[in-house]
């Protein structure tokens, strides 16, 4: 009897992905109490490779941040970023003049297109208790015809994201359709905007000691299930431990037996773009010549410059969840 598994692989940093996805990274950081600066106590920064701190020490990392954890301004071109913040908060600022604070289940969808700079910082807003952060960032490729579209910024607020409640599972539908429940519209030029591409991003949580059936896709998609939290699970007699990815056959229903702890999964699927990919750091094009052109344009234009006072721009501590769009529209939550 088929288990639906093509192969499994250990989850590294970042996670291995399949076309149309380029990259997926999972951040889980148990940040301490915040200081007035919205960063950790400076004493806790001793012994870290500040500016390039990717080694977990005391349960957390500073990444490229100097005083506040996160990623100060950097460019992108030729793809989309989808940022899911399950715990904690992310402060966004970009060269379009857009900004926001989102978290506790919100999702940001950004089409880099012809080029954008942005910063993603993780302010430690709580001063009297710890500031845990759980975040996925997914890079979804753009086909050649859409590589140089105008950049686009969109928020998917957690109150508006469909969550399908089953008897033993909850499925958060960030992209795609799950048993008739359709996600909010993605960015307009996204590969996910066309239903026939069957792009799906689902965050799935299943109760312990139960059985869950992952429904099959309509087409021959690439489908990967990331098992990032829990104890053992079983596909028939085949055991899979946590922190493994499972490449699945999307043409069949797959039955998963959950072990002694609740299981948390991220599912990424979609029909492949099936075009040549040329990558260099934050640029993803189809040829090396296009990469060189992207680098030259960024050198000359800075993709519009940086309208914010700091490379690691953050918003006022008292600010709630909000989005400032390039046209000046502000939405507050």
TrEMBL record:
Family: Belongs to the pirin family.
CDD domains: cupin_pirin_N
Pfam families tied to this protein: Pirin, Pirin_C
Domain of life: Bacteria
Originating organism: Flagellimonas allohymeniacidonis
All residue ranges annotated as the Pirin N-terminal domain in the record: 63-140
UniProt protein name: Pirin family protein
Family annotation (InterPro entries): Pirin, Pirin_C_dom, Pirin_N_dom, RmlC-like_jellyroll, RmlC_Cupin_sf
Boundaries of every Pirin C-terminal domain copy: 202-304
């Amino acid at each position: 009897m088929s288990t639906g598994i093509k192969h499994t692989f250990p989850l590294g940093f970042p996670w291995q992905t399949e076309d149309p996805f380029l990259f997926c990274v999972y951040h889980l950081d148990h940040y301490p109490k915040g200081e007035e600066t919205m960063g950790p106590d400076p004493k806790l920064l001793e012994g870290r490779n500040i500016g390039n701190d990717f080694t977990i020490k005391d349960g957390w990392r500073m990444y490229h941040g100097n005083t506040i954890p996160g990623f100060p301004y950097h460019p992108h071109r030729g793809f989309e970023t989808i940022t899911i913040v399950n715990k904690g908060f992310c402060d966004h600022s970009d060269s379009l003049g857009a900004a926001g604070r989102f978290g506790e289940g919100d999702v940001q969808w950004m089409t880099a297109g012809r080029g954008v700079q942005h910063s993603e910082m993780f302010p430690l807003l709580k001063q009297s208790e710890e500031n845990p952060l759980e975040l996925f960032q997914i890079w979804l490729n753009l086909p050649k015809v859409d590589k140089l579209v105008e950049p686009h910024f969109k928020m998917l607020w957690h109150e508006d994201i469909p969550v399908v409640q089953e008897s033993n599972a909850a499925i958060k539908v960030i992209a795609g359709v799950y048993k008739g429940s359709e996600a909010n519209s993605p960015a307009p030029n996204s590969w996910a905007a066309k239903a026939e591409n069957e792009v799906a991003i689902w965050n799935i949580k299943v109760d312990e000691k139960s059985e869950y059936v992952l429904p099959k896709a309509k087409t021959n998609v690439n489908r990967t299930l990331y098992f990032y939290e829990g104890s053992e699970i079983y596909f028939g007699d085949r055991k899979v431990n946590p922190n493994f990815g499972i490449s699945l056959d999307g043409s069949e229903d797959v039955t998963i037996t959950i072990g002694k702890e609740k299981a948390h999964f991220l599912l990424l699927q979609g029909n492949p773009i099936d075009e040549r990919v040329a990558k260099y750091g934050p640029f993803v094009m189809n040829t090396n010549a296009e990469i060189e052109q992207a680098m030259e344009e960024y050198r000359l234009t800075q993709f519009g410059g940086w309208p914010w006072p700091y490379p690691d721009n953050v918003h006022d501590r008292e600010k709630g969840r909000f989005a400032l769009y390039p046209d000046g529209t502000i939405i507050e939550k």
